[in-house]
Amino acid sequence: MSPTFEIPVFSAAAATVAVSHGATRLEINRAGSYVAGGLTPTLEEVQAIAEDVSVPLRVMIRPRGPPSGEPDFMYSDSEFQQMRRELDASVASGLLQAERGDGFVFGILKRDGPDRLSIDVDRNRQLVEAAGPYACVFHRAFDLILGDVAAEEEGPERALGTLRDCGFTGVLTAGGPGSHGAVDHAHSLQKLAMAAGAVDAKNRGIEIIVGGGLRSSNVGALAGQILAGSSKALQDAVSFHSSCLLDSAAAVAQGAEGEGVSAEEVDRISRVLASL
């Protein structure tokens, strides 16, 4: 069975293209928010997608993009309350199906000293608990943490354990910080996958969703490095996330300028993952 192939989408039209060409899960974001890294969609946007597809849906809960000159994923009390309201509204809407694997994507950090960030356990746990039966995935905020703990013995594994303790079922990560994405962190991703594939004392695993610069030209080699010599448990713990964006002209024709999904690229990645 192929690994889960997740695509972030910013319109119902893009969602339809993604699923019809091989996406097996969708991350739903507000239209026009790609440049901000994805923001909370409206309930109308979630409904338009939920009515037309049958794959699991993950709704982004993110009030804003990165602030100028400050680390991302740290939020004021009012921003946190906004996140809570948006999550509560999605849960109450009845648009999501826990049995389908639907859920949410979010991540909150806090300062742990002047030059160090850590996972905000209290706030993240509050949101996970509010999500009830729905799956919760920690956003790429995790990559900022990995930059701080990489040199520590079992630091990344401990950070992964913190997410488990918060109740997260998955984490979206490139394996570390930097602008080049997952291809620069294959070894780190392999270690994280091995840690994720081994359940803890409470029989809790966590899914590693590999994202950041994935293309049909590199996903095969990267997946091969991460999954080399792996067990089925490890393979089941790893998924892949790619935006598969169209060029701007084709995106306009799809009605989502700068945020359209390339059917050809989805096809190519689907075939690569099916061959693993």
UniProtKB/TrEMBL annotation:
Residue ranges the record marks as coiled coil: none
Pfam family for this entry, one: CutC
Domain of life: Eukaryota
SUPFAM superfamilies, per the entry: CutC-like (SSF110395)
Homology family: Belongs to the CutC family.
PANTHER family for this protein: COPPER HOMEOSTASIS PROTEIN CUTC, COPPER HOMEOSTASIS PROTEIN CUTC HOMOLOG
Protein name per the record: Copper homeostasis protein cutC homolog
Organism of provenance: Sporothrix bragantina
